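Page 47, continued from p. 46.
Same chain as before, 239 aa.
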Amino acid sequence: MKKIKSYKRVLLKLSGEALQGDQHYGIDPKVVDSIASQLKEVKEMGVELAVVIGGGNMFRGLQAASAGMDRSAADYVGMLATVMNGMVLQDALERKGVFTRVQTAITMEALAEPYIRRRAIRHLEKGRIVILAGGTGNPYFTTDTTAALRAIELGVEVILKATKVDGIYSADPKKVKNAKRFKKIRYLDVLKKGLKVMDATAISLCMDNNLPIIVFDLLKRGNIQRVVDGQMIGTVVSN
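Result:
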């Protein structure tokens, strides 16, 4: 298979829903174990790996706010959900012998390190997987924006956006049979077409800093390794 390039330092964006598998809520231990196995294989390729994880499998701040909850309070609860997911992923990785660190944007020293950029980079250089939880530490920002922000701060080469579909389509492929899948697309086109890849703030951050995004199917075993190895799967968002 033709390659784009291989990467040495990457950030993987995992949605909370990725951990729930076919369940409607919560965490599927088998799915978490599979993801942990794949991340271990990526680490063994010599890749420095950071992971930003969402919390939508447990709590969605935006939905709670639309139901009447104060938006700031709802977003903070959502951030706590990402910490729970991060700890679950850490446990799965460490049971496989992978050294990790969970860093949170909200200080909770009994559970995780506070997010400190230089410390996170040092962990990456030492071969540890750094799991970044707690969002940005501020309400009104999504974990997509967190992923873009942390990726830029940590100097990664690419954001890997793991989803349940095999790339970016012109429309929802589950609803529109003739929806076109893009192999490559520009940031501006994503914004103009209103494609739901990442939120507009995240896309704009990546565009301003020329940081590519690769959207790919997490459900196909081995895809994380393939995309890190530079194989052309999914959709590349760039300039």
